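Sharing a chain and its predicted structure for anyone who wants a worked example. Both blocks are below, sequence first, tokens second.
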Amino acid sequence: MKPLNGPLEIGVRALVLLSESHPDALDLAEIALLDYAMLHSAEFDGPPSLHPDLPARTGELALKRTIFEQALLVLIRAGLAELETGDRTGLVYRATERGPAFVDILRAPYVLQLRERAKWAVHEWAPNTNVRVATHALLTTHPASMNKHPSEGHRE
């Protein structure tokens, strides 16, 4: 089992994001982009980044989709998240009532920092961000050249 950036760590990060957005649901593209923003928040004029600014870090978005799917299945099996059909976005994930309660008992310093960044990403950064445009911009543009909201607009 891969401990770093494996299904367990990514599952905790996804649950932190789903718990912060609770009761609202997120699709896989939103979760992946919010995860990136949560880890590299300083790139978007947010709190200090949790992960280092490595040259190839934008490749994380392209590589993590399968791991996020595996991690979300673990959360669903544990009763911490659920899969639903969204009105406009297809499949969406939502924290169950147990999800935020589980996150509340996690006291590791890293998880507390994740929660702080998730709050910023979900409530301050994401409302003005078009997920598809922002993801495309991250994959094709060096993050340092982007402004704090790479795609003004609404979450799609």
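Comments welcome. Strands lie at 81-86, 90-95.
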